[in-house]
Amino acid sequence: MKSKILKIAVSGALGKMGKNLISEIQNTKNISLKVAIVKEKSPYITQDVGKIIKIGKINVPISDSLKNNLQKFNILIDFTNPKTTLENLNICAKEKKKCNNWNNRFYSRRTKEN
């Protein structure tokens, strides 16, 4: 039986956690990075994310649009700011995409309120 490959999009791809995750994805079976998302107007847009993070060419161009890449992935992993995270969650919900959020600013704020 053939294993299903998880197609991953990483938002916040050039941040510390995004870079680490992309490196690990490249070394993991049955997981494939399909989309690397960064801030609008980043000078890295269209460049290969592997080259930028110094793991070698991986044929994944950097993009600043989640909406333009919806057909390429089935799971989004988000390492952005609260505003962008909420926008990404809304897009994923509408498109029935899974989203995993790692924004500690939500959790730290919530902990302080409780």
Descriptive notes:
The protein is α/β, with parallel strands linked by helices and 114 residues long. 34% of the residues lie in helices and 20% in strands. The protein is built from 4 helices and 5 strands. It has helices at 16-26, 49-52, 82-95, 104-113, and strands spanning 6-11, 31-37, 62-63, 75-78, 98-101. Helix 3 links the parallel strand 4 (75-78) and strand 5. The radius of gyration is 14 Å and the shape is globular.
Overview features:
34% helix, 4 helices, alpha/beta, five-stranded parallel β-sheet, 114 residues, Rossmann fold
| Large-scale geometry | globular
Query: Within the largest sheet, what's the order of strands?
Result: 3-2-1-4-5
**CATH architecture descriptor text:** 3-Layer(aba) Sandwich
Q: What is the CA-based Rg, rounded?
A: 14 Å
Number of strands: 5
> In the CATH hierarchy, what is the class?
Alpha Beta
Mean pLDDT: 89
Helix content: 25-40%
Assess the beta-strand content as a share of residues.
15-25%
Structural class: alpha/beta
Short overview:
By secondary structure, the protein is of the alpha/beta class. It contains four helices and five strands, in the order βαβαββαβα. The chain has a five-stranded parallel sheet with strand order 3-2-1-4-5, sandwiched between helices.
Show the helix and strand layout.
Blueprint: E1 6-11, H1 16-26, E2 31-37, H2 49-52, E3 62-63, E4 75-78, H3 82-95, E5 98-101, H4 104-113
